[in-house]
């Protein structure tokens, strides 16, 4: 089995009520380029006996982050993640939305999902992966001027990963393998309440 593709960055606003995690305001954030998950692993706590490790403490995930790289995330979707409300500004004869990074920002907690394309015994399969609870950091943007040839540039988004509020404190889930990307998308759409 090998991973050979990535698609469909989606998210939904995280809520925990009456013992259950749910997601609302689900949306497709962007087309996917790549992602990296970094976990802060706790220090091992080994017990030695007869000059070797006899027992080891059951280490648990504490914290981490994901950096996802969208092909292009819209100002609306970025503002939604960062808890920014649009401000209308008149420009000539039209009105435009402007998103202010200021003291009023309140990054939301969200669930996040995507689809990995795998090759299993020479057959394409698709797996939906979800992070239960993330919170976006303010992006550090960069850009370079266009030269004689185009260097494609993207703006990665970094989010902190948290354990959810369920009794088992889940933080990530992987689906079974789907035969089609459409089936994996349908699963994520159902989970996050995406209708369009």
Question: Mind sketching the topology for me?
Answer:
Elements: E1 2-17, E2 20-30, E3 32-40, E4 46-49, E5 52-56, E6 63-70, H1 75-82, E7 86-91, E8 94-99, E9 109-120, E10 123-136, E11 157-162, E12 172-174, H2 181-192
Antiparallel strand pairs: 1-2, 1-9, 3-6, 4-5, 6-11, 7-8, 9-10, 10-11, 10-12
Describe the oligomeric state of these chains in a short phrase. single chain
Report the average pLDDT across residues. Answer: 91
Number of helices: 2
What kind of sheet is the major sheet?
8 strands, antiparallel
Overall body shape: globular
**Cα-atom radius of gyration:** 20 Å
Q: In whole angstroms, how far apart are the ends? A: 32 Å
Task: Kindly state the number of beta strands.
Answer: 12
Low-confidence stretches: none
> SSE order, as H and E?
EEEEEEHEEEEEEH
- Portion in helices: 10-25%
Work out the strand percent.
over 45%
Secondary structure class reads: mainly beta
Written overview of the protein:
The chain has 196 residues and is mainly beta. The protein is 10% helix and 51% strand. The chain contains two helices and twelve strands. It has helices spanning 75-82, 181-192, and strands at residues 2-17, 20-30, 32-40, 46-49, 52-56, 63-70, 86-91, 94-99, 109-120, 123-136, 157-162, 172-174. Strands 1, 2, 3, 6, 9, 10, 11 and 12 form an eight-stranded antiparallel β-sheet that branches. A two-stranded antiparallel ribbon has the order 4-5. A two-stranded antiparallel sheet has the order 7-8. β1 (2-17) and β2 (20-30) form a beta hairpin. It starts with a strand and ends with a helix. The model has no long low-confidence stretch (mean pLDDT 91).
């Amino acid at each position: 089995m090998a991973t050979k593709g990535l698609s469909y960055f989606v998210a939904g606003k995280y809520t925990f009520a009456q013992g259950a995690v749910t997601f609302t305001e689900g949306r497709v954030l962007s087309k996917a380029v790549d992602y990296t998950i970094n976990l802060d692993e706790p220090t091992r706590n080994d017990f030695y006996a007869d000059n070797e490790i006899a027992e080891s403490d059951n280490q648990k995930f504490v914290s981490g982050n994901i950096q996802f790289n969208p092909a292009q995330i819209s100002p609306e979707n970025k503002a939604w993640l960062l808890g920014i409300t649009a401000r209308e500004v008149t420009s000539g004869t039209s009105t435009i939305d402007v998103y202010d990074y200021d003291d009023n920002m309140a990054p939301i907690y969200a669930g996040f999902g995507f689809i990995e394309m795998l090759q299993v015994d020479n057959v394409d399969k698709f797996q939906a992966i979800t992070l239960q609870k993330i919170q976006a950091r303010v992006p550090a943007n960069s850009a370079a001027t266009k030269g004689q040839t185009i260097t494609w540039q993207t703006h990665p988004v970094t989010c902190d990963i948290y354990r959810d509020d369920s009794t088992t404190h889940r933080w990530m889930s992987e689906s079974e393998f789907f035969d089609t990307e459409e089936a994996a998308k349908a699963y994520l759409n159902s989970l996050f309440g995406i209708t369009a």
